[in-house]
Amino acid sequence: MSLLELERVQKSYSSDPRRRGVLNGISLELDAGELIAIWGRRRSGRSTLLRVAGGIETPDGGVVRFEGRDLREPGNNALGGGIGYCRRSFRSSEGPQVIDHLAIGQIARGAPLKLAIKRAHTTLERVGVDSCAGRRPDELDAAESVRVAIARAIVLEPRVLLIDEPTIGVDLLARDSILGLLVSLATDGIAVLTTTGESTCLSGTRALTLSEGELQGATPRELAPVVPLRRPA
User: Fold this and answer.
1) Which of 52, 148, 221, 222 is spaced 20 to 30 A from 38 at the CA atom?
2) Could you give the count of Cα atoms lying within 13 Å of 215 in the half-sphere of its Cβ?
3) 3-state DSSP helix/strand/coil percent for the chain, to nearest 5?
4) All structural domains of the chain with their residue ranges
5) Number of H helices and number of E strands within the chain?
6) Distance of alpha carbon 127 from its chain centroid, rounded?
7) What region does 137 belong to: left with phi over 0, alpha with psi -120 to 50, or beta?
8) CA dist., res. 93 & res. 157, Å (int)
9) Which one, of 22, 3, 6, lies nearest residue 192 by Cα?
10) What pLDDT digit, counting tens, does each position of 24-76 carry?
11) 55, 19, 30, 82: which is closest to 192 by C-alpha?
């Protein structure tokens, strides 16, 4: 049994049956320790695919399972628990400093404040931005923002991490280190599903393409080869 499974998933935002859906019978399996990168052009549906995979949006057809359980069934909402979804936006209601944004989700789940703060610092250090703990989110550069978003998701110890275009807006010199971070998380046993619109930002155990609402296993000729999954030095 796969950790996360999409089976014949359909999704459309149009009521016109003549129009092609965003997702047309998508099937995908993701296992622990695996990193899958999905490439697609703008408006190819890659962001929709992640939202459906995380249970943020409900598919029109097909099924999404986490640990064998249908996410649509009552009590099976895994988002924020077993499934971590990276959100790069920061709500002011979650606190003025980065450390607050990592602590609040833990506190909402019953963690004592002292423990939540300790875990937040440990996780920020894990992703390489512990120096950002006392800063405001609007003071972060693009690379720092991505790392903090990843930290906010993994501080809740998910088994699956979903991240949409992790290198968008990030300086070219910082992109490899972010991709390396995702590889290291997969090496630690987290299942990582990421998307990208840039052929140079493919890294993982599998690279797929999303086009015309369908997933293809073969990497298009114009894309860069997949980087082997290994822990960065």
Assistant:
1) 148
2) 21
3) 30, 25, 45
4) 90-157
5) 5, 10
6) 15
7) alpha
8) 23
9) 3
10) 999 999 999 999 999 988 888 999 999 999 999 999 999 999 999 999 888 77
11) 30
- Report the DSSP pairing between strands 23-30 and 69-70: unpaired
Q: What are phi and psi of 95, to 5 degrees?
A: 125, 160
For the stretch 173-198, pLDDT in tens is 899 999 999 999 999 999 999 998 87
How large is the average pLDDT for residues 143-155? 97
Classify 140 as helix, strand or coil: coil
Question: Residue 229 in contact with residue 186, Cβ under 8 Å?
Answer: yes
How high is the pLDDT of residue 117? 98
Distance CA 225, CA 7 (A): 27
